Amino acid sequence: MYEPSRHLATYYIAGYQHWDGALVLNELKPGATLRIAPEPENPHDPAAVAIYHEDVKLGYIPSDQNRAVSLMCAYGHAEAFELRILQVDPEAAPWHQVRVGLYVQDAR
């Protein structure tokens, strides 16, 4: 059966409390697509993959789950991934305000 995308992982945005997510929290809606951007020059984690809403950095894919995504992006396959907002909870602690799902898109 054809599926337009397949779920790979679910997590909260790492470092959300340190970036600018609070400035756009009211714009973040479940189902919205976010952009990923590898940061191979990141001094803390060379496999870091940043998460953006438009041009606003929200944080990162958690470091314990970013290796495969980072590697695929390094080999030119970033477009195979889709990151969607699954849940937004403005009342939660900042590091649990936005939960996202990572999907791989079917290229058939």
UniProtKB/TrEMBL annotation:
Q: InterPro entries from the entry?
A: HIRAN
Query: What are the TM regions of this chain, as residue ranges?
Result: none
| GO molecular function term, any single one | zinc ion binding
The positions making up the signal sequence are none
Spell out the Gene3D superfamilies in the cross-references.
Answer: 3.30.70.2330
Per UniProt, which keywords does this protein have?
Hydrolase, Metal-binding, Protease
Q: Which domain of life is it from?
A: Bacteria
Q: Name one GO biological process term.
A: proteolysis
Q: What is this protein called?
A: Serine protease
Q: Please spell out the taxonomic lineage of the organism that makes this protein.
A: Bacteria, Bacillati, Actinomycetota, Coriobacteriia, Eggerthellales
